Amino acid sequence: MRIASETKAAVESILQPQTSFEAVDVVNSDDTDTQSTLITASLKKVARDCNSILVMTDVFGATPCNMAIHMILQENIKADVELIAGFNLPCVIKAILERNHYNLADLAHLSLDAGQKYLRLGSQETVMKQA
Amino acid sequence: MQGHVVIQNKLGLHARPSAQFVALARQFACDIQVQRLDIIVNGKSLMAILTLAASQGTLLTIITKGQHEQEALQALCALVNSGFGEAL
User: Fold this and answer.
1) Which residues pair with B40 in a beta bridge?
2) CB distance A15–B39 less than 8 Å?
3) Is B59 on the interface with A (CB under 8 A)?
4) Residue of A12, A32, A13, A34 whose CA lies nearest to A22
5) How many domains does chain B have?
6) Radius of gyration of chain A (CA)
7) Between chains, do A94 and B51 touch, taking CB under 8 Å as contact?
8) What residues of B act catalytically?
9) What is the CATH number of the domain that holds A21?
10) For residue range B32-85, what is the model confidence (pLDDT) as tens digits?
11) How many contacts (CB atoms, under 8 Å) link A and B?
12) ipTM of the assembly?
């Protein structure tokens, strides 16, 4: 329910507090008006300082993702926006660490790759094979 | 150049110390790699370093190559040996 703010807290505990890094928790998906307002407000806040925005949501096709897509398409966001659905911590960490070095499209791919690459099966890792 | 270090801090090379390591490594232009057994990763990638899953007592080799490789090696070894400012 609070995957966004908890992820943000986890990332900032590792990498220190970050600017232009917003979390919107979709805690009540029935209240679409309130949630939509919060998502839009976050997008517009980040767009004040950035000309590109990478939005991350949980499962593709689930309510938070659908709302984000709707807001991105409907609202007049003064920035280029890309979306990654199904994010995990490696995705976010990679994006934060590399965001000043790549354009939006390349950063999105880099982040996506990290999310996939660092999803691991413990039993296949050397550290567990040795135990 | 290369040097060996043993992870000193109780919680091992978890996320925060790895972030410290990478932040320091990125201050140097040289290539930096970290090796545990047969696994060698980019010393400037936080996620890659985490895949070493290096707990307290783990032996790592730090390999530096290029500009200021000696300074980089010394600084990184010192950071690991300091226990990253955490409980030992």
Assistant:
1) B35
2) no
3) no
4) A12
5) 1
6) 16
7) no
8) 14
9) 3.40.50.510
10) 999 999 999 999 999 999 999 999 999 999 999 999 999 999 999 999 999 999
11) 27
12) 0.85
